[in-house]
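Q: Fold this one first, please.
A: Sequence and structure below.
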Amino acid sequence: YFDPVTALIAAVGTPVTLLASHLLLKKMRKHDLMMKDLGMEMMSFQEDSLRNLTQIKAMGASDVYKNKMSDLHGAYAHGFLTYHGFRIRMSACLSALNLPVTGLCLCWGAYLLWVDGISYGALVMLLQLVGMLRGALSALGGQMQQAVTVLTSAGRIMAVERLPEENAEVPPGFSPDAAW
């Protein structure tokens, strides 16, 4: 309404930012799946180890399990650092994509102020609107990251739901009283 050129700059810059975030989110989904798999493997191993701790000690296999746990912790730590490093780089990249839009709007506004196309107050208002747009795009990027995490978790739950049911039939001649 106040300046169609600024609106055009924002209208062109916003889809570019959203497209870049869409491409980055595909990689983030891969990282998110990796972290969930590592976490699941580590939790499963810990639970099995604790559940069978007596047998592990009786068989003298404590060192084997300790080494396996150490390897799992190392893999998890590496995956954790890789995952969060990617998230930080992704956020920085998306923020950097917003900077040219802000810079172009600032330059255009300064030019309009120089040629008496707008007043100083209109320039301040224009920059506030650009800042609000930039904040909204940053928030959208954060929401998209959370959505990927939620969708990855939901996909894992649905995969468990699709597993075939186990056969719960009691073998012929089995008596629970005879087992004790």
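Q: Good. Now the second chain.
A: Here it is, same layout.
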Amino acid sequence: DDARIRASLPTIRELLARGARVVVLASHLGRPKGKPDPALSLRPVADRLAELLGRPVRFAEDCVGEAAERALAEAPPGSVILLENLRFHPEEERNDEGFARALARLADVYVNDAFGAAHRAHASTEAVTRFVPDAVAGLLMEQELEFLGRALERPERPFVAILGGAKVSDKLEVVRNLVGRVDALLIGGAMAYTFLRARGVDVGRSLVEPELEPEARRIEEAARGRAVAFELPLDHVVADRLEPDAAIETLAVGDPAIDGRLGADIGPRTIGRYRDRIRSARTVVWNGPMGVFEIDAFARGTLEIARAVASVDGTTIVGGGDSIAAVRKAGVADRITHISTGGGASLEFLGGRRLPGVEALADR
């Protein structure tokens, strides 16, 4: 998937067009645990980037030290250099000042275009900004902050948020923050079952976080107090196991026939109810699938929500890997206003947190 590479192209092209002598690119891939891993080298990224840019991309065998500095010294004007995986050094994730200084030696201007890493205080996103004359946001970072910021601060209404995925704990801050800002909050995925059980509903073997049931009740009470439409599934697809060949059945939520089984997708009544809410919206933010989306038998709810979001006459923002995959699988990605490149970063932003990678910039 080259989506994040493509998303960075406008900034790289702008820097070259504005006369940058060399554009030095730094990034990471995977979790190599602070040591080199050939399977996580960025060399294939350099090859793909060269194809997309239509010009050579030089590859430095390391991101700091002699290899990086030699690549820079040998680069002719107008070059693009991609450094090797930043996370091959443990100092990157430790936000180490010495490592940040070594990165800063490679540049006169620092441009952070990695919204997807902006929630991490790492050497390449936070400490490095202390050692360069200028530290600014790239075009993608600007776009991400503009769309998400507008949704939170000055949305066109009705404003509908759709949250799914496995756990309430993953999105607790987001739910709390959005309850005070949206007109309707639609909950799907396994996280719905903690809210349902907090209402006293029998959810069988569905995934529940019992320790969060009191918080779930408080969130619902807060939604009622603010006249926010807080929607939970009315029916669901249940299965004896989460496998492609599982025996499935659609039941009303609360039907005792769920006994021994677990919820795996929202049902047709819920799809209809959520679709109506979404289609009346002028601003929609969606993060997280409505079911076990990777198994076709449990994908319908997520795909139908994707199509409903694409039909909105207004601003639509989709974030999170499964939601993005859903709009692509449904063939509607080109009808979404903004597809966020930052899963964790967009969640923390929507949860009201400050992002270290943004706070470190001159125009924070």
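Q: Anything worth noting on the second one?
A: The radius of gyration is 23 Å.
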